[in-house]
Specification:
By secondary structure, this protein is mostly helical. The chain is built from seven helices and two strands, in the order αααααααββ. The two termini are about 50 Å apart.
Length: about 190
Amino acid sequence: MERFATDVSGEHPREHVDHLTLLMSKIAGESVAPLSRMEHALAGWSSFVIIPIFALANAGIDFRGVNIVEAVTSPVSLGVGAGLVLGKLVGISAASFAAVRFGLAKLPPETTWRHVVGLAAVAGIGFTVSLFVTGLAFTDPSVGDLAKVGILAGSLTAGAIGTVVLRGARPAVEIRTNAAGGGRRASSI
C-alpha cells in the first residue's frame, strides 16, 4: 500500500501543499461517476427552469382570452390569490404557534419563528392542487380562467414573500449565562 508523502519541508512548502490539495481534489472528483456529476450539474436547471416550464405547459392554462385588467381586479382572482398567500401564511403560522405554546410540539434546534413564517409563506405556492380544485369548483370557463390568474399571481407572491422572509432568517443562537452560580439558557431569535 502506497503512502502519501507528508514531508513538506522543501523550499516552498505552501505551494507544495496547495499542489497536493489540488491533486487530491481532482482525484476525488474523478472518483464520482460521470452520471452523478452530470445529475448534480443539471439539478438547478431541472428544478428552477425545466420543471416549472413543464408544469405551466401541462397545466392547461390558456391566457389568450383573458383580459388582464379584469383578471387583476376580479374578486375571484383576488380571493384565490389572497387565499393562497394569506390563508397559508396565517393558518400555518398560527397552528405552529399554538402547537408550541400548548406543549404539543417544539421548534427544532436552530429554528426561529422567522423560519416558520417564511416556510408558511412558501407553502402558499399551491399550483397543481389549486388548479385541480379550480377545475372542480368553477364550471364557467371564464371564471375558471380568472381563478387560474389568481393562482398564478398568488403562487408568485407567496414565493416572493417566503424568499424575502427566509433570506433574512438566521439560526437561533443559544446564549449561556452564569448568574449567581446557576446556569440560564436564553435563545435569541
